[in-house]
Design brief:
With 130 residues, the protein is of the alpha+beta class. 22% of the residues lie in helices and 28% in strands. The protein is built from two helices and eight strands, in the order E-H-E-E-E-E-H-E-E-E. The chain has a four-stranded antiparallel β-sheet, covered by helices on one side. It is globular.
């Protein structure tokens, strides 16, 4: 979740074009292989904001703007790497520098009541679902 940084004196007005620019720059910087600009679908005929959605072999991406000040980014990749999300978020915010990440959730993989990051397992341990 991204919103205006309370410490910023000047605010940038978010637009659909700015969101697309920020999204394309972040895709490139994060190295999301196989995700082309042509795969991004824009929906702006509902409510005041817009939704950018992309599905590709490496995952999915959704950027939701409420038309005012709130932006949600949902990035899913089959590669478990914190750096992909970090790079994406950092580059996205370069296009909207007066915004800040207010909340970030990470969802590890797993089944049932056991959910683990691969990085948390010993090299010799194999998850029970593998």
């Amino acid at each position: 979740q991204m919103e205006p940084n309370p410490s910023s004196k000047k605010q940038i007005k978010v637009t659909e074009n700015l969101l697309m620019k920020a999204t394309l720059a972040a895709i490139k910087k994060a190295g999301l292989e196989g995700l082309e600009a042509s795969a991004i679908k824009t929906f702006s005929d509902m409510g005041e904001g817009s939704l950018l959605v992309a599905l590709w072999d490496g995952g999915s991406l959704a950027v939701l703007w409420d038309g005012r000040t709130h932006v949600d980014v949902n990035l899913f990749t089959y590669v478990e790497s914190i750096s992909i999300g970090d790079l994406f978020g950092t580059e996205f915010l370069r296009s909207i520098p007066t915004y800040a990440i207010m909340l970030r959730d990470e969802q590890p993989r797993g089944t049932g009541k056991i959910v683990s990051y691969q990085r948390d397992l010993d090299d010799t341990d194999e998850p029970h679902w593998a």
